[in-house]
From TrEMBL:
GO molecular function per UniProt: DNA binding; DNA-binding transcription factor activity
Protein name from the UniProt record: DNA-binding transcriptional LysR family regulator
Pfam families tied to this protein: HTH_1, LysR_substrate
Keyword Transcription regulation: yes
Family per record: Belongs to the LysR transcriptional regulatory family.
UniProt domain HTH lysR-type: residue ranges: 3-58
Keyword annotations from UniProtKB, A to Z: DNA-binding, Transcription, Transcription regulation
A GO CC annotation given for this chain: protein-DNA complex
Amino acid sequence: MSIDLRLMRYVVAVADEGGFQRAADRLHIAQPALSRQVGDLERALGVTLFTRRPTGLTDAGRVFVASARRILDDADGLVERSKAAGRGEFGAVRLGFVTSAAYEAVPRLVDAVRERHPGLTVDQVEGWSVELVEGLLAKRFDLVLSRSMPVRPEFGRLPFHREDLIVVVGAAHHLAGRDAVTPADLVGSRLLLSRRHMPGYRAALLSALGHVPEVEDTRLPGWRRFDELAGGENYQLVPRTLGDHLPADAVMIPFADRLPAPDLELVWRRDPSPAAALVIACAGGRAADGGR
């Protein structure tokens, strides 16, 4: 037979209060109605749950109450978990990000989400800028951390991190021993930059330099792009965050006058899911705490 939760709550209340009248007062029902419904339940079960005068639990009653407490706790938890899921506090958010976000921005954001919403996970995928735009439009990503994302009416955005650009060269490059450089010092060297995979970022870097450099197109993903620096006059412009994570044969050189990198922004489609909205709120707090 099935027993509804209401009757379980009645029996547990009588056990907790040690009497039918006090239980009825707690439940805000009439004592005769409570006694009648518990008696009906006992007859349906074929067991006595309580002794009367004085009221006390029988052995069958103790077993019933112990099981009822577990069921009621699970039921209450189910309601709360369902409400929390509706608020976005359980589940997963898919985050795409560019390489330069991997070492500082992504861990900072994930830590903030874990601290505030432990039931929410952030699935992370690294990609080129173009891939991230396409993935966001195709709903493969809920959120994207990228630089120079296109301005589109369906995108919301939040500045997340600001930093300077640095120059990265191979150990054999003629500038490798310099403490600092200017954009003019780079004339004659070839800037490694992807033409197809990161057009917005490419345009921003060329604008920041103030001159039109010789550009060598690269198609290598992530850190493999640094392989093209060895033994030549190639260079890269990367955000300062990456300077602490270079391979051993790469050399970081700051600019004599600070040159800002394009802002790292958190970008999402308008009307984000409840879970994505919680991550956006976490990002807003962390951007305010450590945006630069």
